[in-house]
Amino acid sequence: GLVGAETLARLERLTLDLYARAAANCARAGLILADTKFELGLDADGALVLGDEAVTPDSSRLWPADRWSPGQSPPSFDKQYLRDWLDAIGWDHASPPPELPVEVVEGTRRRYVEAHDRIAEVLR
């Protein structure tokens, strides 16, 4: 439903602050936080809550800062690797997805773990 202008303004400030903090931490880890999402809601008491994970390879697009250049699509530490594989094999995005080969699962996992490890290291 609608939340009103005051709540909207609060959510806008909060999400921009969260993004700035996350992007700064990612930058310290050598990553560009190209985009992300924050799923926020109100609980039964009206308190603002985070409804899902945030700033992970599943909810964000993470690029290695040292491999990015304008106009290029850099390798990523997110689910884009899996999406690219599905597109390359011609999956129509409507029918049930194909079974994933072990190397695709491992490649996706390796990227997720590396992103985690790089970000976790700067937060220690």
In short:
With 124 residues, the protein is an alpha+beta fold. It contains three helices and four strands; from the N terminus they run αββββαα.
Cα shape: globular
Q: Helices and strands: which structural class?
A: alpha+beta
Number of helices: 3
Mean of pLDDT:
93
- Rounded to the nearest angstrom, the radius of gyration is 17 Å
Helical proportion?
Answer: 40-55%
Walk me through what this model shows.
The chain is α+β, with helices and mostly antiparallel strands. The protein is built from three helices and four strands; from the N terminus they run H-E-E-E-E-H-H. The protein has helices at residues 5-28, 80-88, 102-123, and strands spanning 31-36, 40-42, 48-50, 60-64. The strands form two sheets. Strands 1-4 form a two-stranded antiparallel sheet. A two-stranded antiparallel sheet has the order 2-3. Strand 2 and strand 3 form a beta hairpin. The longest helix has 24 residues, at 5-28. The relative contact order is 0.14.
Secondary-structure topology with pairs:
Blueprint: H1 5-28, E1 31-36, E2 40-42, E3 48-50, E4 60-64, H2 80-88, H3 102-123
Antiparallel strand pairs: 1-4, 2-3
Q: Characteristics of this structure?
A:
two-stranded antiparallel sheet, 124 residues, alpha+beta
